[in-house]
Amino acid sequence: MAKVSAEQLGSDPIGKLLVKQAVPASIGILVMSLNILVDSIFVGNWIGSIAIAAINVVLPVSFFIAALGMSIGIGGSSIISRALGADNHAKAIKTFGNQITLTLLITTVMVVLGLYYVNELIPAFGGKGAIFEPAKIYYTIVLYGVPFLAFCMMGNTVIRAEGKPKFAMIAMIIPSVGNLLMDYVFIYIFDWGMEGAAWATTVGYLLCAAYVLYFFLSDKSELKLTPACFKLELPIIKEIGSLGFVTLSRQATTSVVYLLMNNILFGLGGEAMVAVYAIIGRMLMFALFPVFGVTQGFLPIAGFNYGAKKYQRVRESIITAIKYASLLAAVVFIGLMSFPQEIASLFLSDRAGQSADDLAANAYVLEHIPLAMRLVFAATPIIALQLIGAAYFQAIGKAIPALLLTLSRQGFFFIPLILILPDYLGELGVWLSFPIADVLATIVTGLYLRKEIKNKLVKEEA
Q: Is 377 helix (H, G, I), strand (E, B) or coil?
């Protein structure tokens, strides 16, 4: 696979460059998503559907802490991309050092707090009834590995900002492959149950962190750190924080959505309804991997060329990224609309000797998931515009519009909808909230992006 240097981000043809950046990102996201998907299939078949619901309860807490690392990574990587575009290597290196210090300090504190309040957090996120005990087991073990995951997420965005998408892809593949191998050993061979699933995930995080550390210590990275780089500097922290807050706010909103959804669905259908959402949540992570890959590939291209004041290339990268991502989203849409029940059946065990509760939960999931999945993914073909539009403002360092557009779908539209519609439509109201929020957020983003292109990029080109 061809390597992309930082300088090539400002010179290669946009279409070719986007493919070079997006394909490794897509492969990395695909493997990571497959990891989540296959992990859920293993857990569902070897432990039970309630175990899938338990993991779904834990994810928003652990992912939020890990998202602190991603937020610091994306915020700092925007600075690094623009600094490299402006040939300011000193600022790029100093920013990276500050990213490492911030990631380790903040995530460690959050893990301590997360472990202290474990008995309060799990029920708050829907871990009630039969879900509580397996969720607590999984949560406690996985949380120890979350700082390593945060470091991986931070480092991955920096690797991509350097124009090294192949290495970023490898960093995403390693924890996924490691997790799946350990799933087989710990769950299937050792029969450790939920403990095995948790330790498999944690080992994957450790392997990823080791690889990211190796990359930055080797001659493959252009960012050679000195001890002075780790000293926090307020101007850099503010800039990282303002841009990274966009990603953190998105993940915080996602965690709130999980909290609300798990509790609303538990009230509507108990543990089995939470399992329906858990499967759909896995598909949301997995099915859209090519769209997310194009978005990740787009970020360093837009940031570098904006920093280099090559505004025509910035505009071209926006249009090309939206075209590519929309085409891929349409393909995903066709597949999901055609085979929802077949997809759901992959997660459910057909082994002999299952309890009556497990058999009832499986039947409930198969009955309810086709309509739910079709409604949740109904607006998939248009979401590329919303994702690319929000990513553009983050890439060029405009924190406020990036924040507002990122929060528009879940924060401004989806959360109010799921608080209102289920009171009138029940379960149907929950699933209808997804496409309505997608359409509204895409309209808002499209209008704002069109205004930005016309008033900023076109004028700067002239």
A: coil
